[in-house]
Design a protein that fits this description.
It contains 11 helices and 6 strands. With 218 residues, the protein is α/β, with parallel strands linked by helices.
């Protein structure tokens, strides 16, 4: 993968560069602030597959990374975005995930226990999938409105939908919940039905279900 990084912590920034390079990936740029990275993107000789962004960076240490993520989605379509932070910021996050959640992720630094989990998240985002930490999902839900369709889901269906929101495939959900592949497929089909997501070749029902779960205006 081709990766760009905006992270104001020099230790973490250099650590990410070393990790990705050691695993055979190419880091096209690693900057200490989001504006510098955005300015450099049009000059790169290769297109990044994923941008890894901290949320709070100079100069205000509030939401620079989120606003940069929105700018990348707008000006550089096809580039995946991973927000990698200690904090959950819901305002711009709802806008980011509400427009189109594909190729987008949000992970909390303190909750990534294994290097392989981080690398797997990058690969899934580069492939157009959505990756969300459950804690991020919970906080986004807490800031959102009530959805009567979601209220119809069973406890197991909510559990399956939460894992869908994390970007997991049916096979991965089956393994995590100790269910058969057929059982997971039945739960997913039931979720689509209860959320009134009709079969439509023009719509990705899995993405729409996740967006409904995040309550981001779908």
């Amino acid at each position: 993968m081709n990766v760009v990084i905006a992270e104001d912590s020099a230790v973490l920034r250099d650590g990410l560069v070393a990790l990705l390079t050691r695993r055979g990936h190419q880091v096209l740029s690693a900057r200490a602030d989001a504006d510098a990275l955005l300015a450099e993107l049009p000059t790169l000789t290769a297109r990044p597959d994923v941008a890894v962004l901290d949320v709070r960076m100079p100069p205000t240490f509030t939401d620079e990374g989120l606003r940069a993520a929105l700018a990348i989605r707008r000006d550089h379509p096809g580039v995946g975005v991973l927000l990698f932070s200690q904090y959950v910021e819901t305002s711009y996050a709802t806008e980011l995930f509400g427009s189109d959640a594909r190729g987008t992720g949000y992970l909390l630094k303190d909750r990534v226990a294994e290097v392989r989990d981080f690398l797997d998240a990058l690969e899934r985002i580069a492939a157009g999938q959505t990756v969300l930490d459950p804690e991020v999902v919970g906080q986004l839900m807490g800031a959102a409105r009530v959805d009567p369709g979601l209220a119809r889901l069973s406890a197991r269906e909510v559990e399956v939908l939460e894992m869908m929101a994390e970007g997991r495939s049916n096979a991965a959900i089956a393994e995590r919940l100790y269910l058969s592949a057929g059982a997971v497929e039945k739960h997913v089909t039931s979720i689509f039905g209860k959320l009134d997501l009709a079969q439509d070749a023009g719509d990705n029902r899995r993405v729409l279900a996740v967006l409904r779960y995040l309550k981001l205006g779908v």
